[in-house]
Backbone:
């Protein structure tokens, strides 16, 4: 663990709030560049020895994610509905954040993702907009992330991939039976399957051992340190500098500002729920697409009556959801999908939006198996399957090792009515307002999911499935959303966006926000690579600003 | 809590344990360890009669046909411990659910004295009468978790449930994993560098 501890009364150079996918990267970049950094993390500091394969603990109980018992979330479909307690959103809550328990899919955006408004035009009922940056602006940082963290994949295998300056540092993971069946079927249909890029080590890398295919990636922490979380990749580098202190179990409730409107630090609850103020010359909020806008809204003051950095009024607006539907098929022979990482093959053939379809949207499809034993018996069988008795038992026994899923990852449009706000009635265990989620699909989101579901079934049938079925995609069925995007939008215009093209807030010159909240569009889900590329880019910019003396 | 009939892969997060806190999980495992160490396994939450009734229903949900079922896997011990730890909030649902089930048993089989002493056909008829209720869904969820969840919670004894589905919990595996990737390993695919 970290050797260095900084006194709270001295201003450190940077305070980073959230030690997740983005915060870990930012902390490492800043500390390596010579700055003194304190990182405040809501959750605990766990290690590989703390993890296990316990399905009940990690997939049914909150495990490594936010626990609604202590941090309630309320949900409503529209402003007209009452908000009710529901785990509508989910995020990783420990040092390493969501990079610890995620499935480890690591997709770069396509070039078109940054300019969809220009390419596609207006979408009624949505705030589709171009990013203020292009793929070319971000490319060096995608590459940096892939090499710094350790990503496995095969450059050039995806014909729709944007240009890259370097291949992946590691070859792809071995194909599972689902990947083989998918690849065969996709090729038969004239599609272009390719090995899934993943934040998992296919070979030893920078002192970490290769993945041993235990099969427990999604929702679990990696006991082998083979999943390239910030916890095992960049955070140890940050700590080794002697200039970075990671403070776990510290829950920030307010960012303070001075008379000049500059951030001066943050007030947080430590593990004993004492309130502590940490001074800093500049602040990075990397708390995720829900916790970041929540903290800004909590940080209102006389000078910032609508919340910090919210002169635009769009903090918390344009929440985008983790959209996509799941189709399944059962095959003649055992696939034994519980062995190996979750997804090994995918396609981007349906990625681009195409006006000819009659709706905006597109998606990627991966072949995977993300059920563990009990969840499969409870939720993995066809909708018409018996639910108890000897036929039920026989069915889950034979289907468990013969079933695979195709999961689509699809567009989610930014809508002004989709928001994160503070619940006026419900409080968390610290007495802070609960997050209130207001969200419903845009009709085009639903149309995309339905259209892609037809493609998923076609592929399963071409793969020779004996029976196929699909899961419903009502918004309640796509809960909790695990990809939290859009709530502190990036843009050049301070009237319509929260941060500039370098993740610095328009309103507060020494306050940076970088995580999924920056996203202007959701692309086709799988936000982690882009979150981390943005984090490297924002950190580089902040280092420059600090060296120019702009951050005080 | 509401139970949906249309389940998706994310639904497991919204089932009865969605609100369970991690300390509850730890406590459940500690209880189970303590119970397993005791020479005479005993019930901590349920009285013997109720336990026998719940076990009879669980054994119809996952019967012992074609190998171990809920009974052999000790599902009832899982449920008993769950109700004193992370599923504490479900105690009331069990109390009222079992009272209604007994009432239903009296209506359908007036001559009978207990759910556990009904014959198999009668038990199935009784389940059919309640199979759309939220209590049955709770019981079904707990039965499956007790059959296929980690053995440290007191169920899935001897990994009996895992054996039935062909799952083995290991620290690692080597490819080939299944029939189809074994097949393709004989004819290397594009994108695969061995």
Residues:
């Amino acid at each position: 663990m970290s050797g260095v501890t900084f006194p709270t009364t001295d201003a450190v150079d940077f305070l980073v709030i959230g030690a997740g996918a983005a915060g870990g990267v930012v902390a490492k970049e800043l500390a390596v560049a010579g700055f003194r950094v304190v990182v405040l993390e809501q959750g605990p500091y766990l290690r590989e020895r703390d993890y296990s394969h316990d399905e009940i603990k990690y997939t049914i109980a909150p495990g490594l994610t936010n626990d609604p018992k202590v941090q309630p979330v309320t949900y409503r479909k529209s402003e007209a509905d009452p908000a009710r307690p529901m785990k509508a959103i989910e995020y990783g809550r420990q040092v390493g954040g969501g990079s610890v328990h995620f499935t480890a899919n690591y997709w770069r955006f396509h070039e078109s993702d940054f300019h969809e408004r220009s390419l596609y035009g207006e979408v009624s009922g949505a705030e589709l907009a171009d990013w203020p940056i292009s793929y070319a602006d971000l490319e060096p940082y995608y590459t940096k992330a892939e090499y710094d963290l350790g990503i496995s994949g095969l450059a050039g295998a995806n014909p729709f991939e944007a240009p890259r300056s370097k291949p992946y540092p590691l070859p792809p993971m071995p194909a599972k039976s689902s990947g083989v069946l998918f690849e065969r079927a996709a090729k038969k249909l004239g599609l272009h399957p390719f090995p899934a890029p993943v934040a998992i080590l296919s070979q030893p890398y920078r002192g970490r051992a290769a993945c041993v295919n235990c099969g427990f990636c999604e929702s679990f922490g990696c006991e082998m340190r083979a999943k390239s979380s910030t916890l095992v990749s960049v955070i140890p580098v940050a700590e080794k500098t002697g200039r970075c202190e990671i403070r776990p179990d510290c829950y920030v409730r307010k960012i303070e500002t001075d008379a000049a409107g500059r951030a001066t630090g943050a007030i947080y609850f430590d593990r004993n729920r004492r309130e502590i103020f940490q001074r800093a010359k500049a602040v990075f909020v990397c708390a995720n697409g829900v916790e970041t806008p929540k903290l800004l809204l909590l940080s209102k003051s006389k000078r910032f009556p609508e919340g910090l950095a919210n002169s635009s009024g769009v903090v918390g607006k344009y929440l985008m959801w983790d959209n996509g539907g799941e189709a399944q098929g059962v095959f003649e022979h055992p696939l034994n999908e519980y062995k190996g990482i979750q997804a090994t093959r995918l396609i981007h053939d349906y990625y681009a939006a195409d006006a000819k379809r009659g709706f905006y949207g597109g998606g990627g499809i991966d072949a995977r198996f993300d059920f563990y034993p009990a969840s499969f018996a409870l939720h993995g069988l066809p909708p018409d399957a018996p639910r108890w008795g000897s036929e039920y038992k026989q069915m889950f026994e034979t289907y468990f090792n013969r079933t695979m899923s195709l999961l689509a990852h699809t567009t989610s449009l930014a809508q002004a009515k989709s928001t994160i706000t503070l619940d006026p009635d419900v409080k968390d265990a610290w007495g802070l307002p609960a997050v209130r989620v207001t969200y419903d699909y845009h009709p085009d989101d639903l149309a995309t999911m339905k259209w892609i579901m037809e493609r998923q079934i076609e592929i399963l049938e071409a793969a020779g499935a004996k029976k196929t079925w699909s899961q419903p995609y009502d918004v309640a069925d796509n809960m909790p959303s695990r990809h939290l995007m859009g709530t502190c939008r990036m843009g050049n215009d301070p009237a319509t966006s929260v941060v500039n093209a370098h993740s610095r807030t328009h309103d507060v010159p020494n306050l940076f926000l970088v995580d999924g909240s920056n996203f202007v569009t959701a692309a086709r889900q799988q936000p982690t690579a882009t979150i981390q590329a943005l984090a490297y880019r924002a950190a580089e910019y902040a280092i420059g600003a600090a060296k120019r003396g702009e951050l005080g | 809590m509401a139970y949906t009939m249309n389940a998706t892969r994310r639904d497991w997060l919204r089932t009865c344990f969605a609100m369970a806190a991690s300390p509850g999980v730890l406590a459940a495992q500690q209880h189970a360890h303590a119970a397993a160490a005791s020479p005479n396994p005993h019930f901590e939450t349920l009285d013997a009669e109720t336990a026998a009734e719940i076990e009879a229903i669980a054994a119809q949900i996952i019967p012992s046909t074609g190998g171990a079922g809920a009974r052999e896997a000790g599902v009832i011990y899982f449920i008993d411990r769950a109700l004193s730890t992370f599923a504490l909030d479900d105690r009331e649902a069990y109390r009222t659910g079992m009272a209604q089930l007994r009432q239903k048993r009296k209506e359908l089989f007036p001559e009978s004295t207990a759910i556990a002493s009904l014959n198999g056909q009668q038990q199935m008829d009784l389940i059919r009468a309640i199979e759309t209720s939220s209590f049955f869904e709770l019981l079904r969820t707990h039965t499956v978790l007790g059959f296929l969840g980690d053995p440290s919670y007191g169920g899935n004894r001897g990994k009996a449930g895992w054996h039935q589905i062909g799952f083995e919990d290991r620290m690692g595996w080597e490819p080939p994993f299944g029939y189809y990737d074994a097949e393709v390993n004989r004819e290397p695919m594009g994108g695969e560098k061995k």
Notes: The longest strand of chain A covers residues 275-285. The two ends of chain A are 30 Å apart (CA to CA).
